[in-house]
Every structure is written in structure tokens, then in C-alpha cells.
Write a structure and sequence with these properties.
Structural class: mainly alpha
Number of helices: 6
Order of helices and strands: HHHHHH
Radius of gyration: 29 Å
Strand content: under 5%
Helix content: over 70%
Distance between the termini: 114 Å
Number of strands: 0
Length: 206
Amino acid sequence: MLTEEQEKRIINLYKVYYDDIKPLTVYVERKYHKFPKGLLKEYRDIYDHLSRCYSENATNDLIEENIGKAEHHYERIRLDIYRYVCDYKKRVFVKWKRKYSKYDLQSIADGKFWESVLTLEDDGERKFFEGRDWEAKEINVACDYLKESFKIYDQIMCIIDENREKIIKAKFKYRKVTIFSQIVGFLIGVLASVVASWIWICLLKM
């Protein structure tokens, strides 16, 4: 039979699941369009251990052992789910950066916009790698760093949304310059052909 303290630990596992793990699991499943197999195994192991706590033959030592193992699996799930979220949000930003960095984003807000984006990107990367370094030492600390990392990427995307109109203007400006350059290049090419033809005709008449 479970003690009051053991019941509290199990209840806390469910609380962690509903407050933190479940929303992010749904997020990952929606963004990746699939449920990661690694997480599915962790979930199965958790409830396998918890079910043993309610066995008729469960001793106090057995209950303690299985609650401890279930708690460890929850930590692994948090770590894995945070990595998935970090990976997705980082890839979204990198894709955006690759698409828009060719435009004159440095002119937005006197350069402060692009400077803020790049500074936050560095912070997000640093937090991510600090989290990875802590994985083998302390999972909770690793999770805290990973959570900070994907929140930074959220902050980057918020700044991008706030400056969307200015970014679109920079995009159109780039297109106008590109079209103008193409037209000038075409005209120069035509002019060069005409001049070359005229010179060739003159040489033939000599």
C-alpha cells in the first residue's frame, strides 16, 4: 500500500505531465506531423512502472524503486521534448534567415532590428549548447537551459512579426533594385552588340 508521500509523488508526476509535458508533446506532434517513437517508449515505461506500484504483492521497497524509475523517465521525456521544440523553432528561424538575409534588413530601425536578431540568435545557441552540456550531469538544469533557448527563438519571431511591414518594404526595395539592374544589364548588352556590329561593318568597308 502506498504511503501519503508516495501518493504525492505520483500525483506530482501527473501534474508535471498536464502542466508542462502534454502541451509540448502536442506541439511537437503537430509540427512534426508524427508522434516521436522515442517519446512513446518513455511513456510506456512510465506507466509500466506506476502500474507495479499498485500490485497486490508490491512491497514498500518495490514501490519506491518504481516511483523513482517513473520520475527518471519523466525527466527524460522533458529533456527529449525540449530538444524537439528547440530543434523545430531553430529550424523555422534559420529558414527565415536564409530567405530574408539577402534583403537590406540592416536599414530597419537604424540597424537595431538586425543587431537584436543576431544577438538573440547567439544567446539562443549558447543556451542550447549549455543545456546539452548539462544533460549527463543534471537533467533539470539541462531542461532549464533548453527552455530558455526556445523562448529566445520565440522572442526573435516576435521581433520579426513586429517589424513585418518594414521587412516587406526591404523585400520590395531589393526586387526593384534587382529588376533595375537586370534592365540596365540588358540595355548595356544590347548597346554593346550594336556597337560591335557597327565596328564590324566599318571594318568590312575598309
